[in-house]
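Rotation project, supervised by the postdoc (A.L.). Task for the rotation student: set up a whole-complex structure prediction and record inputs and outputs verbatim in this book. Inputs entered:
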Amino acid sequence: MATRRKVARKAATRGQKAAATAPIQVAENLKDVRDLLKVLRDTGKPIEVRMAALQSLGAAAFSVPNFNSLHADYIGALREVATDSHEELRRRVFGILTRNKDGYAQKKLLDGLKDPAKALLPPEKALQLLGNDVHAGAYAAARTILNKPPNDDAKREALRLLAGDAKSTPLLEKVLRDKKELRENRQLAASALHSLNPDKLQAQARKILLDKSDYADIKATSLTALEQFGDDGSLSKDKTLLQSVNRLKNTKISAKYKQTARRFLSKYSP
Amino acid sequence: MRGATIARALSEDQFAALVDALAADPKRRGDLISLLREDHPHYAERGAAAIVRMRGWVLLAVARGEVPENALIFILEELDTGVDPYLVAAAARALRSYPHPTAALAPFVMRALGNIRYRDEPVSFANYGEYAISATHTSAVGELLATLRWLGPRARGILPELEPLRAPNGGLSRKLRLDVDRALQAIRVPAPADEPATASCCGTPPNGARSMSSWPSDSRRGAKQTESITLQDHKGELITFKEYFHGQPSIVVFFYTRCDNPLKCSLTVTKLARVQKLLEERGLVDRIRTAAITYDPAFDLPQRLRVYGQDRGVRMDAGHRMLRVIEENENEVLRRHFELGVNFVGSLVNRHRIEVYILDAEGRIALCLERLSWDEEQVVTRTIEMLKEKECGSGRQA
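Outputs recorded:
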């Protein structure tokens, strides 16, 4: 154990030394950008130096006049480095490429979601980055992950991604109604439904409010959804729901929740 | 090909093999060209990047032989409105296999240069699906400049736009600026004696560049199957196709709010607003209807339609509406009726063309403008003809 710690300490010191000997260069012109691209591609350079080069290139993309003339080289270098052995570098590079809606990066991430042996990033990160482009074709992969998640984070990111997929409405309804589901996930599902199909959210929110066994915070979310975005015509005629909300005032719930109930009743009570 | 069904979805590698096989067989050239239609079943349920890889490979395969007239429009479309470097590069390369270079092609190449020069990328054509990782590969801008060289003196009309690209701060690398010089040299050489150089920008467009189709009154397709389709407008009000499109001529455009190509949906709807202004100026805004119908009705709810229209200056009232179809099966009927050039992954569009229609007072398609950028004045003029046709009570060829 002590030996392992020593090795780790030595490695850390080496990294710090390397970083210290390679100051982060601020690119001022295209020659600097070309030099930074060389450093980024050079696997012989310490990782800290390459990361610093990547950071400088990101700044240069904004600050160096005529950076666009090297855009093709920049994209080429990022694609090359996307398969680097260092995960943090890959993570940052995929972030830049996917914000650029890069087909190469999307394909690599989707391949990794379908076959974990090919994955260059963890599934939750891959899903998050694929979310940068609604046209990435990631919805099918996200639905698969939602049905059989490798971990909680991946499930959460799948839910976030599916907020743009109209075909996932039934899945989102199921997550919202599932009392065994994590609360954060249920709230994400409610938010996604609000975006995709507000009528379905309203129907589910009503069911949750009438369900005596559901959790107070989820009920509060549902009540807020109805109070803010509900359909005036149907809610003001919904006696069952109005009575149920009226009863909330006399139960042990948070002041904020009670306040929402009061607003709901003043808005929809006849 | 429209309406054809493919029993089994091909993998991308299988698709590439199919394309190669079609390209190798001169008798199956028609099948190869049909793969350029957006609504081809092979493109269903794929992400946009996969569509780019697939269509790019088809364009390159078409270019292995002479580009026929019926493929030219797809190439010009990509140059006109494409924003993906791989597809633009493939289109530029494919154009060089067109056997009749003319001055009318030069503005398309120049427009593509303007669209793509700030987002150029290295591209590789060596193998299907290959992405370039080195700047030693060709690029969209490199291919477009090579195509201008190929056009030579025929591209003289675009010299004033090309020359500024030589400037060191013009957004091009040193290597590409040398390519600009080479293109300028090729354009400036004297034209062959039998073919005068064209200093004007356009010249006569080739037959394959026609983006407009029209039908005389007696040959327009009936709209019976569409009449009962229920549409919902930007305010959430329901109206049937017959109620809205019968009685007056209409201008109809298709779009979707999540389109990320600024030269397609956003520009189309902005142009629709301009069309409405032209109608107002001519006092016709109450006699000609307009509609923008979404390809993506599951996502484009009334509020999204309203905001999208408002942001682009669209007039929205009883005779000018942003619309969506509510029922999926009716959406399918509408797609078939208009023969829309669109495909989907789930309910989301993965590729579409530009399409503008003029309907007569019976809701039948009288004129269609597709793929290339369209002119608002031209659309208004043609719709006024439709109005006169209605008033005369007799059909005449559009």
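Student's summary: Chain B has two domains: 12-208, 211-392.
Supervisor addendum: Chain B is about 40% helix and 15% strand.
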